[in-house]
Design brief:
The complex is a heterodimer of chains A (about 110) and B (about 120). Chain A is mainly beta and about 110 residues long. In chain A, about 0% of the residues lie in helices and about 45% in strands. Chain A has strands at about 10-15, 20-25, 30-40, 45-50, 55, 60-65, 70-75, 85-90, 105-110. Chain A is globular, with a radius of gyration of 13 Å. Helices cover about 0% and strands about 50% of the residues of chain B. The radius of gyration of chain B is 13 Å and the shape is globular. Classes of the chains: A mainly beta (about 110), B mainly beta (about 120). The interface of A and B includes residues 43, 45, 91, 97 and 99 of A.
């Protein structure tokens, strides 16, 4: 699986937007970009995924660069509950096994 | 909805003891997997299964054993516990369709300490 690079930590304020970057310069044409987050003392939680176009769901938006070598997870209005470690993961859409390769992720701190 | 249920939530073992971590899902997912997470690190894949009767090794399989006799259950066995296996263990499941888009559902983890 191709590698992703994320900042170790980020900090933001409650009710402000948060942009979490991810670089994946070796992404292949068949890789989906997945985001998961892990709240303290919980298992990872799926956030969003996309292939080429920007994606929106009730939790977040995913903006994908035109060359697909980077992406940004956008939390439109952060709450204290959004404080978590966010993982950007590439997932080959052709491979049958659903393995996820987790890196270190970005630890997001939300200030009240 | 129960989702993915892991038991026990906490366990302390002595070196050399064996035990089984239980994982059950009620979503009829074909794919199930076990990860371990050590302090300050991301999750690492131990074993996975793409359906009943089929299992395979992940990134860090040594010292662990799995079997998949039913779609719902995927137990993880520690054969002879070692302090290096102190970790938090997560079980996950997802549909399996050959397309890498299905989100995985994780349990809340089993916190295991080996003395």
């Amino acid at each position: 699986d191709a590698k992703t690079t994320q900042p170790n930590s980020m900090e933001s304020n409650e009710e402000e937007p948060v942009h979490l970057p991810c670089n994946h310069s070796t992404i292949s044409g068949t890789d989906y970009i997945h985001w998961y987050r892990q709240l303290p003392s919980q298992g990872p939680e799926y956030v969003i995924h996309g292939l080429t176009s920007n994606v929106n769901n009730r939790m977040a938006s995913l903006a994908i660069a035109e060359d697909r070598k980077s992406s940004t997870l956008i939390l439109h209005r952060a709450t204290l509950r959004d404080a978590a470690v966010y993982y950007c993961i590439l997932k080959d859409r052709i491979q049958g096994a659903q393995k996820l390769v987790f890196g270190q992720g970005t630890r997001l701190t939300i200030n009240p | 909805n129960a989702g993915v249920t892991q038991t026990p939530k906490f366990q302390v073992l002595k070196t050399g003891q064996s035990m089984t971590l239980q994982c059950a899902q009620d979503m009829n997912h074909e794919y199930m997997s076990w990860y371990r997470q050590d302090p300050g690190m991301g999750l690492r894949l131990i074993h996975y299964s793409v359906g009943a009767g089929i299992t395979d090794q992940g990134e860090v399989p040594n010292g662990y054993n799995v079997s998949r006799s039913t779609t719902e259950d995927f137990p993880l066995r520690l054969l002879s516990a070692a302090p290096s296996q102190t970790s938090v263990y997560f079980c996950a499941s997802s549909p399996y369709g050959g397309v890498g888009t299905q989100p995985q559902h994780f349990g809340d983890g089993t916190r295991l300490s080996i003395l």
